[in-house]
Amino acid sequence: MTAVLFDFSGTLFRVESTESWLRGVLAEARMELAEAELAEAAQALEAMGALPGGSGPSWLPEDVASVWGVRDKSAELHRAAYTGLSRHVALPDDRLHDMLYDRHMSPAAWVPYPDTAEVLGSLRERGIGVGVVSNIGWDIRPVFREHGLDGYVDSYVLSYEHGVQKPDARLFRTACAALDVDPRDVVMVGDDRRADGGAAALGCAVHFVDHLPAAERPDGLRPVLDLVSARVRTNGGDPQTRH
């Protein structure tokens, strides 16, 4: 085993809660809502799936449907999809919809899972290459830098920079090429069985984690170290999928 590829949201990092997201933007805009109104708006935003990295939409409005499936292919499509969802929720000022989108891209909106630093650091100590492969519409590198984790990542392959999104094998092939590794010697770690599972088409092993709040998943990444060790001991073998 020579490299591990990780998804970003729901795998290495978790976005803040919808209520925290809305509170942060209201504070930035110097606006206030009564607690009941704030809770209602946050609940409506969550139901719409308006927070990137949060829950998916409970229903897909017609005006967003055309871009939803390809939203991660460009920055413009990503913004259009999520602000389109947000605008189905009544807020006291229309400018808040773009402010909400902008806030989710800030490092302060993201927290690493409790074992992220430990696992990335251990892989670095073992000489295992690390890549991040994400369906995303913006540059996540500043998030890693702000949290002191960029030194553990050798390459980033972000869908919007390539116009290709997972599960398309081309994105995983690009990530393996960036690390100069054979896909058969790689583990892909992610929380989306369809998107991240696409790596198996290249011969990568795939390991899934649960997309949970950070406090509820303290050690979900640690089994990756055991998987890497096992693959090294057996000197390869058929790709495996673990849950």
What is the total domain count? Answer: 2
Outline the biggest β-sheet.
6 strands, parallel
Distance between the termini: 19 Å
Estimated helix fraction:
25-40%
Strand order of the largest sheet: 5-4-1-6-7-8
Q: What would you call the structural class?
A: alpha/beta
- The name of the CATH superfamily of the largest domain reads HAD superfamily/HAD-like
Count of distinct strands: 8
What name is given to the CATH topology of the largest domain?
A: Rossmann fold
Strand content: 5-15%
Annotation field: number of helices: 10
Describe the structure.
With 243 residues, the chain is α/β, with parallel strands linked by helices. The chain folds into two domains: 3-14 and 111-242, HAD superfamily/HAD-like (Rossmann fold, 3-Layer(aba) Sandwich); 15-108, no CATH class. The protein is 40% helix and 13% strand. The protein has ten helices and eight strands. The chain has helices spanning 18-29, 35-48, 62-68, 75-86, 95-104, 116-125, 141-146, 159-162, 169-179, 223-233; strands spanning 3-6, 13-15, 110-112, 129-134, 155-158, 186-190, 205-208, 241-242. The strands form two sheets. Strands 5-4-1-6-7-8 form a six-stranded parallel sheet, sandwiched between helices. A two-stranded antiparallel ribbon has the order 2-3. Helix 10 (223-233) links the parallel strand 7 (205-208) and strand 8 (241-242). Helix 1 crosses helix 2, helix 1 packs across helix 5 and helix 3 runs antiparallel to helix 4. It is globular. The two termini are 19 Å apart. The model is unreliable at 235-243 (pLDDT under 50).
